[in-house]
Amino acid sequence: MEVKKEIGSFLELDFPKGLEYYKGNAARLNSARAGIYHAARVLNCHTVFLPYYQCETVRDFLIKKGIKVLYYSLDRNFSPKIQSCSENTAIVLVNYFGIMGHDRMNYLSSNFQKVIIDNSQAFFAPAIKGCLNVYSARKFIGVPDGAYVIGNHGEEYLQEYELDYSSDTSLFLLQRIEYGCEGKAYQAREANEARINQSDIKRMSKLTHAILDGTDYEYIKSKRRENFKTACNLFDNINKINPGMFYSDDCIPMVYPLVVEDDKLLLKLLKHKVFQGHWWNYLLSETDPDSFEYYMSKYMIPITIDQRYGENEMKYIFNIISKEL
User: If pLDDT is split at 50, 70 and 90, which confidence band does 1 have?
Assistant: First the structure.
């Protein structure tokens, strides 16, 4: 019998196999922005409606690939202020923070003909039938890149894309363990981000696929649910939005979205080495100051609730914020 692989030499990192969350008819790609472009191709749409409240890398990638981008606003319930699209236009609906339940996303998608569900913030959200569903792996699992597209004909065009290689810029995943998230680990992560930003659409790298095929997803789901519940108990009384508005049992959140009207709070947290992000700051110069998008960009802090942490860390963050406010 012919053996078509290398045998012997040094040992590599070894992962369990067969645990991948999305198997079967899934398009495995290198990034969610590429996944949204791929979904537009599958839907045969050269125009895409994006929400203003979304990462600019999606917009930039679509424009670079020759897609015409239009925009819609959100109301304070995260509902699109748009009633319909032309039949040759796809709309991207975002599952914000991973706290929009299946019924909610199904209801929103029912108003449009060609829908791309952006589940970048909702890796475990069940796919909506009749839509193309895009998932980002690296916001939930320690991988250098990776995305899935799930839906009818989602695997079309895959043979046209080159295979991605991510090991050359994945050292930050190891450095994070030994050095923490500052210094050389952060610099190495930025190099990986630059690689993704400069990359065309590609198939998922073998390294990312190996990690995703050996991940304990049930543990991740359980810890994120527990931490989100704890965060709700701690923060809901000071939050200017209601994170539980559309939450349901099928939600596995990415973060707890805390909105307090103190635009210096993020800097105060950094003093305590609590590294929370500032999402989509560019919107402060591109949207109306009276808009919901501007308000969220200015004041929303995505509180970390991932599987590395538990109740003690949630209380620690809450105590810092309580003192700083």
Answer: low
| Calpha distance 177→199 (Å, rounded) | 27
Residue pointed to by tokens 């003093």: 271
Residues 283-316: tens digit of each pLDDT: 999 999 999 999 999 999 999 999 999 999 999 9
Residue 280 and residue 144: Cα distance in Å, rounded? 21
Distances (CA, A) of 299 to 33, 271, 314: 25, 18, 19
